[in-house]
Design goal:
By secondary structure, this protein is of the alpha/beta class. Helices cover 37% and strands 20% of the residues.
């Protein structure tokens, strides 16, 4: 990713209502399912926002991460995290079956990523019964806007996302959309001016407005989870590894 964009992400993400809602969902799902002392990696950790949230909430797990971008890794280390390294999601530098959980947010949609090989590799490093949390951009109708992240070239329907997780290797425990309230606005912006559906909104948004949007977004996510709605600008999947994951034949 572009260094200037990463610097912008690092500056804004901790106050972004969208990131706050996402991280809240991830931590909540992990707390529901993951025992204390579990080993967890953030696959494609970006500038370290989720790792910082883990630290803020004093989670009871052993946490590490990696990212393809050397600049992203540098920014994560500036936050004080040392257990982070540069690596590809298709070649994760951890041994087979050594982890209890993996989180992978907004990575599978990237142009540089082979989504099938990436899922197989995420499964490889998980122990049997291990937990995987994935987020991807939703709604193929928004594909023309290419998402909010540089390099994003794929958007997913619930059905397409399920296809990446074959039943012989995975049990899908939860799959739902979120930011359903933001979806009409994203479509309207795309129609009016070809705008990309942003996650931060106007620069300089007040803390009070961000807090309100985070509360609204959390309510939206909770409803989508309860009703298992596939509607929204993003999809969240929680899966359990049930068998041996085998990469697809080239």
């Amino acid at each position: 990713m572009d260094e200037a964009w990463l610097a912008q992400l690092r500056e804004r993400e901790d106050g972004s209502w969208w990131h706050r809602v996402l991280r809240g969902m991830v931590v909540e799902e992990l707390r529901r399912r993951l025992p204390d002392g579990s080993r967890l990696i953030d696959a494609g950790c970006g500038t370290g926002g989720l790792l910082a949230e883990f630290r803020r909430q004093r989670v009871p797990w052993q946490v590490a991460g990696f990212d393809l971008s050397g600049e992203a890794v540098r920014l994560v280390r500036e936050r004080g995290f040392t257990a982070v390294q540069r690596a590809e999601v298709e070649a994760i530098p951890w041994p087979d079956g050594c982890l209890e959980a993996v989180v992978c947010l907004d990575v599978l949609d990237q142009e540089s990523v082979d989504e099938h090989l990436a899922v197989a590799e995420l499964g490889r490093v998980l122990r049997p019964g291990g937990l995987l949390i994935v987020q991807v951009p939703a709604s193929e109708r928004l594909l023309g806007s290419a998402g909010s992240f540089p390099g994003s070239v794929r958007r997913y329907s619930p059905g397409r996302l399920r296809e990446l997780f074959p039943e012989e290797s995975w049990r899908i425990d939860l799959l739902h959309g979120w930011n359903s309230i933001g979806y009409p606005w994203a479509r309207l912006g795309q129609w009016l001016r070809g705008a990309r559906p942003g996650q931060w909104g106007p620069v300089g948004r007040s803390a009070a407005v961000s807090d309100f949007l985070a509360s609204l977004g959390s309510w939206d996510a909770a409803v989508c989870r309860a009703l298992r709605l596939g509607w929204g600008t993003s999809l969240l999947l929680v899966a359990t590894k049930t068998g041996r994951t085998v990469p697809p034949v080239p």
